[in-house]
Write a sequence for this structure.
DNA sequence: TACCCGTGGCA
DNA sequence: TTGCCAAGGGT
């Protein structure tokens, strides 16, 4: 099978099997000349970074309803956007999202630039996002390489070099298939194939439009690609979260702008360390003096460490805290929402 | 370059 | 239960 035949097969498959996604202009409409809104394409691409479609979708609908244009988003307050992002994770994306929206509003007249190079210069635009927005929103023949495309290429060509070292080789293989014809559909076809057929586990090779081209399938174990270097073990840390209530309100803090959960509202915490905390030690380290009572603990897993958070609760008052009604706790990252719910529960 | 940075679903 | 996994970017 020639590369041109492979392309024809995959694009035809996409025409018949494209996923219907809220940020997507499908192949039928694109054939009529309809273009996707760069703002919506960009927003979806950022939300989908390392995030599943089911998890990102409600956030996309919420954001586009509340901020229909990049100018609307650029004019919003930081805290509102960070609160709306809460629960989606990787909060640097939200900080960069705002920085990018404001750069587009200020430096580009509210219009996304239409070259890969100038997109790449915007905050939060790495190689992937610049290529994806360029292809999907502007039909530029860019090389869009995400985890899906890496997996598809590694199987099609039975690439033995483990990731991440194999990225260069996989990217070159993908580049050799890019043409000026339907570049936006091509990028989305590759990613849809990776997401629905050439899946990480249990690929559906009997439904694959390019199976006869696939060296990984010919070798008998397509699911073993891409090869990967083993990951380091995840360390464990221990911390204390303090739940100070004043009637219906809970005391929160704003975390520093960079680092873990940067810029997000949070419960006050101790430092997070390898050794555990006794109740006495935890109370002594509290941000304010109060009659602290141990009310349990929660477990949470981050990308590179796991955490046991001991929960101390007290009723009291203090300055320098962000007093928030219980109904406002949905502005918290998941780890603190989980901790607050557990600590405020009457079941303890 | 290697490490940092969330979350929830699933086998 | 544990580890793997999802449309990566920043530093």
């Amino acid at each position: 099978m020639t590369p041109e035949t492979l392309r024809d097969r995959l694009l035809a498959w996409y025409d018949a099997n494209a996923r219907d996604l809220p940020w997507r202009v499908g192949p039928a409409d694109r054939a009529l000349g309809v273009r996707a809104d760069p703002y919506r394409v960009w927003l979806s691409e950022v939300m989908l970074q390392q995030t599943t479609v089911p998890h990102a979708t409600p956030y996309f609908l919420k954001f586009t309803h509340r901020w229909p244009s990049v100018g609307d988003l650029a004019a919003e307050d930081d805290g509102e956007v960070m609160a709306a992002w809460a629960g989606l994770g990787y909060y640097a994306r939200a900080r960069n999202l705002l920085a990018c929206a404001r750069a587009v509003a200020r430096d580009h007249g509210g219009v996304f630039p239409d070259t890969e190079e100038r997109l790449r210069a915007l905050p939060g635009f790495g190689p992937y996002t610049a290529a994806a927005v360029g292809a999907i929103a502007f039909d530029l023949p860019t090389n869009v390489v995400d985890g899906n495309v890496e997996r598809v290429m590694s199987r099609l060509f039975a690439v033995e070099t483990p990731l991440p070292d194999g990225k260069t080789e996989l990217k070159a293989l993908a580049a050799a298939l890019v043409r000026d014809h339907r570049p936006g559909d091509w990028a989305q076809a590759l990613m849809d194939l990776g997401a629905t057929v050439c899946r990480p586990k249990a690929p559906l090779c009997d439904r694959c439009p390019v199976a006869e081209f696939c060296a990984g399938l010919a070798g008998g174990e397509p699911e073993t690609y891409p090869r990967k270097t083993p990951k380091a073990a995840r360390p464990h840390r221990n911390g204390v979260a303090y739940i100070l209530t004043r009637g219906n309100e809970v005391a929160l803090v704003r975390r520093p702008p960079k680092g873990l959960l940067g810029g997000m509202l949070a419960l006050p915490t101790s430092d997070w360390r390898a050794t555990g905390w006794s109740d006495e030690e935890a109370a002594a380290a509290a941000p304010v003096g109060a009659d602290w009572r141990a009310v349990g603990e929660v477990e949470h897993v981050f990308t590179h460490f796991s955490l046991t958070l001991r929960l101390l609760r007290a009723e009291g008052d203090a300055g320098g805290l962000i007093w928030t009604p219980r109904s406002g706790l949905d502005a918290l990252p998941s780890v603190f929402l989980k901790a607050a719910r557990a600590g405020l529960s009457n079941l303890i």
